[in-house]
Amino acid sequence: MSRSLEPYRGFHVLMRALPDVLASRPDAQVVLVGAEGTSYGAKPRDANSWKDKLLAEVGARLDLSRVHFLGRVPYGDYLSLMQVARVHCYLTYPFVLSWSLTEAMAAGVRRGVRYRSGARADHRRGERAVGAVL
User: Fold this and answer.
1) Is the dihedral of CA 111, 112, 115, 118 positive or negative?
2) What is the C-alpha R_g of the chain?
3) DSSP state letter for 59
4) 54-63 contacts at long range (C-beta below 8 A, 24 or more positions apart)
5) 12, 25, 42, 79: least surrounded by Cβ within 10 Å?
6) Which residues, 6+ apart, have CB-to-CB distance to 43 below 8 Å?
7) What is d(CA 131, CA 128) in angstroms, rounded to the nearest whole number?
8) Cα–Cα distance between 60 and 58 in angstroms, integer?
């Protein structure tokens, strides 16, 4: 859950981890909340959005009937999702604690958290963090 599906929020890490996550959890459903635009970073140069770019990269390895892109949702729906979620993946860069992490903790949702210095991307570490929680 994020305002925007973009690298600053770890969207690329999650998308690259999803083929393995879905393979290891055949009953899992993944719900992604966030707009296709950007809030903090730049748009990709070679695609209309980060969602489009990452679906072009990993989409053939995903069962898209189990991956649900909701876009932005009303706050009440967002809270309802938090209350039924099994895992909240928090893969953001550490410049400010996000409301989604605070609200996930308040709802008692298990969290997959990746802390990073922001100096160098290592998506394999992030994929292991997501897989470990699931």
Assistant:
1) negative
2) 14
3) G
4) 54/11, 54/12, 54/15, 54/16, 55/15, 57/15, 57/16, 58/15, 58/16, 58/18, 58/19, 61/19, 62/18, 62/19, 62/22, 63/22
5) 42
6) 37, 49, 50
7) 5
8) 6
Tens digit of each residue's pLDDT, the chain (134 residues): 677 788 878 889 899 999 999 999 999 999 999 888 777 778 889 999 999 999 999 999 999 999 999 999 998 998 888 888 888 777 776 656 666 666 776 677 665 555 444 433 333 444 444 444 44
CA distance 66 to 61: 12
Amino acid at 131: G
What pLDDT sits at residue 77? 92
d(CA 101, CA 103): 5
